[in-house]
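Long-time lurker, first post. I've been practising inverse folding by hand and with some scripts of my own, and I keep getting stuck on stretches where the structure tokens seem ambiguous. Below is the full token string for one chain I'm working on. Before anyone asks, I'm not after the true native sequence, just a reasonable design that respects the backbone. If someone could post their per-position residues I'd love to compare against what I wrote down in my notebook.
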């Protein structure tokens, strides 16, 4: 029987990063993955393929609607080759997952393909399984011994109790990433990150898209100003946004799907389309782990409880990522994976969960770090706010990306930055400036006095800081 210092169950961003860091720190490490490819949801059916389709559809939308204003004339009709687009997405996924395989070899990490389950608190059984990709990983069951184990099995799409996902017309994000036709009318249940991103993909490709959201605004966990701005932009693209709608039934009749709901006036409404994307969040995935054998259990939301060191109630078993409390974000899981590895190596790492950024990869992009205005009001914190519109930037006008803004929230007395919220071109990358500033506890004045290259989108950050500090932005 092989013995390891650390066994990692699950090879998503949290799991594979944890394994790499453990190996770098000299710990003998194994990683166990249920499917035939590494990378988990994020690389296979989540972050990476969705961004590939977002980029491809963005190019198409530009060619169709924006090339002409740039003086670019395309002979003939611009057409979508969905099969080719999906093949490119698959190629991006393959390259990325093979990159993880390379990193496992480079760091001398043993990889086991099969379902890992606890035999007891220190022994893990690995059983062969037929993968979703249709390839067989069947073989003799294996057993390994691990001094420490990291559970990183991630999450699966959630649904509503009365909805039956048939994976044909009533689908989750997994199926939406591999459709063989462009929907005529895609109904998206849920106005969160995943639903809006995939909704925009198919809207660009020619689908009519209707979003049905239970709460009174889309992206409800982000700052209200961001929700308002993104709603305006999506409606401008003819995407239909229906907030304060409670879905109570989804019925399929052949190729037609009917979504029944109650609107804000408690009146019955119906939406008819040919596809329904159920995008109501994700839930922790611990099926098959046999947690009880290790002395573990989950809470009423399916999560594994951990302490501040990410230890479960069995001290040498840790859990990270989507199976524990907190935002279900790949980069949050990565930080936790590194945290556990460095803890096991005797170091004293830290994570500031307030400074884990959140991003929506629509166009314009949406990005946040720190507290929202709603959170500060609820906590009774006195703050000041400074905003700057992207349309006032020369760089934005040059590229034609004039939607959006940067908003900085700072403590009214100390001027320390408490939150930065952005909507605009490339803000998914730009938010790192906000994270860096807040990690060093910068004031709004600190940011306002830093030189920002001209012309760039980043100038909006400096201008918003000026607005928050002295209400004196230079370019508006």
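-- Answer (accepted) --
I ran through it position by position. Result:
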């Amino acid at each position: 029987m092989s013995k390891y210092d650390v066994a990692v169950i699950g090879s998503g961003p949290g799991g594979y990063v944890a394994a790499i860091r453990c190996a770098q720190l000299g710990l003998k490490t194994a990683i166990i993955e249920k499917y035939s490819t590494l990378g988990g949801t994020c690389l296979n059916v989540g972050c990476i393929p969705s961004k590939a389709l977002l980029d491809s559809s963005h190019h198409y939308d530009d060619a169709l609607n924006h090339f002409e204003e740039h003086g670019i004339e395309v002979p003939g009709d611009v057409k979508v080759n969905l099969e080719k687009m999906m093949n490119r997405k698959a190629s991006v996924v393959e390259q990325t997952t093979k990159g993880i395989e390379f990193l496992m070899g480079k760091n001398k990490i043993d990889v086991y393909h099969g379902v890992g389950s606890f035999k007891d608190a220190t022994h893990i059984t690995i059983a062969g399984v037929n993968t979703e990709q249709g390839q067989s990983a069947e073989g003799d069951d294996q057993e390994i011994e691990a001094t420490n184990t990291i559970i990183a099995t991630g999450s699966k799409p959630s649904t509503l109790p009365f909805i039956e996902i048939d994976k044909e017309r009533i689908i989750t994000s997994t199926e939406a990433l591999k459709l063989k036709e462009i929907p005529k009318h895609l109904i998206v249940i849920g106005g969160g990150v995943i639903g809006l991103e995939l909704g925009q993909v198919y809207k660009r490709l020619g689908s009519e898209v209707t979003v049905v959201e239970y709460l009174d605004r889309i992206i409800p966990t982000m700052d209200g100003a961001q929700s308002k701005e993104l709603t305006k932009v999506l409606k401008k693209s003819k995407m239909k946004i229906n907030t304060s709608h409670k879905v109570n039934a989804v019925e399929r009749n052949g190729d037609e799907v009917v979504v029944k709901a109650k609107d804000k006036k408690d009146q019955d409404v119906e939406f008819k389309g040919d596809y329904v994307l159920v995008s109501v969040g994700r839930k922790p995935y611990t099926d098959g782990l046999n947690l009880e054998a290790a002395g573990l259990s989950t809470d009423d939301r399916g999560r594994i409880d951990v302490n501040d060191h990410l230890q479960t109630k069995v001290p040498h078993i840790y859990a990270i990522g989507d199976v524990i409390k907190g935002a279900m974000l790949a980069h949050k899981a990565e930080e936790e994976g590194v945290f556990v590895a460095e803890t096991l190596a005797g170091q004293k790492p830290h994570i500031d969960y307030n400074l884990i950024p959140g991003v929506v990869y629509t166009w314009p992009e949406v990005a946040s770090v720190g507290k929202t205005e709603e959170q500060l009001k609820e906590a009774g914190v006195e703050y000041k706010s400074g905003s700057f519109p992207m349309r006032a930037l020369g760089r934005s006008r040059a590229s034609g990306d004039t939607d959006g803004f940067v908003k900085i929230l700072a403590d009214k007395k100390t001027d320390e930055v408490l939150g930065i919220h952005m909507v605009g071109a490339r803000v998914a990358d730009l938010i790192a400036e906000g994270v860096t500033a807040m990690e060093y506890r910068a004031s709004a004045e600190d940011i306002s006095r830093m030189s920002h290259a001209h012309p760039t989108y980043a100038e909006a950050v400096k201008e918003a800081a000026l607005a928050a500090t002295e209400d004196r932005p230079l370019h508006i």
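A couple of notes from the structure itself: The mean pLDDT is 96. The radius of gyration is 24 Å. Happy to go over any region you disagree with.
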